[in-house]
Amino acid sequence: MRITGILVLMLLTNFGFAQDKDKEKAQQVSLQKAKDYVYQGNELAEADNYIYAEKEYRKAISKAPSVVAGAYNLGNTYYEKGNYEEALYRHTQAAEQASSKSEKHKAYHNIGNILMKEELCKEAVEAYKNALRNDPSDDETRYNLAIAKECAAQQQQEKDKEEDKKDEDKEDEDKKEDKKEDEKKEDPKDQGDQDKKEGDDQKDDEGKPKDDKDQGKGDKKEDQKQKGEPKPKEGQLSPQQIKNLLEAMNNQEQKVQQKINAEKQKGAKVKPEKDW
Known about the structure:
Blueprint: H1 2-46, H2 50-63, H3 68-81, H4 84-97, H5 101-117, H6 121-134, H7 139-185, H8 188-201, H9 212-228, H10 239-267
């Protein structure tokens, strides 16, 4: 009876060991297939056949998600096609699955590049910092971090200006509303008396409207006053024309400066994507 129990225990132990061995063997097969899919995808990507390369990378991810190269290279494929949203998703997936510092560094570096393409400079700064935490010696990442910081600072300045303008507009609007409220508080009777007084001024002592001749005399005096003002000589600009010209030149100079700043920003490009 005791011998029988020992035999059963040995059989169960051998069965469990065989199951573990089969499971490990299946995992190794899956890993190898995933690596083969990645290799085939790389070959297709080098031939600019991104559609079929994408399929191979997807097969690799499905077969073994732990093979980081599948998600990473698929992200690079999307990046080359300009699909930055999907590229960001795949590189984030690669960063999460990565087990080594080298893999994490490459994934975060490319995440930073994608974010810069989307003009998300503040977020790109954090991505490059994560890349440097995993490989502080990479000069390319350090260079891209400097570009991202400069871009983020400029975006913050523009945001601050917009907020200041909104505050000024709101303040002007509040002043207008206060003015309207003050006008509403005025006594309607006083307003009526003022209208009546203005109507009486239009009549003479006998209650008749003033002669149009008097009105004409006023217009004539005004014309004479305007004629008495000095006119610019032929070939010369009036003070108002000079003022308008200076304002136009100032506006044009500001536009040129803004264009130069924009070109300088465009000229500072980040280093390219890192290959696997």
